Amino acid sequence: MRFKDDMSRLNSEYSKVLGEMFAYNKVLQRYSTFNRRDILRVLSSIASSIEGVSFSYIVKYSHKDYFNNEFDFSVLVESSAFDKRGFITDIGTLEKLRKVLFIPFKEFSPSDLCFYE
What we know:
Blueprint: H1 2-31, E1 33-35, H2 36-51, E2 55-64, E3 70-78, H3 91-96, E4 100-104, E5 112-114
Antiparallel strand pairs: 1-5, 2-3, 3-4
């Protein structure tokens, strides 16, 4: 009987600690969530200062792969990568040259960017 009681007590304590941990994670997530447009603006400014060239951002960039799967990203890219119509010329080449930064676009919070998930 003692073993059962100990296991029951440990299970109860484990559930309590797990609940506290999930609550704490929610608090961290709330304080780690920022407006996507603001973060992209700051990142483009920092990248422009460090690299010495102008950087721009696209809040939502859709890309289709070979199998027609569509992926959405926020993109930070050198301003020279845009053509006259405002489209990125060759995203694959830019990626190989490490001239672009992709930031995943979450469907459940498209306007927010969370750094703790």
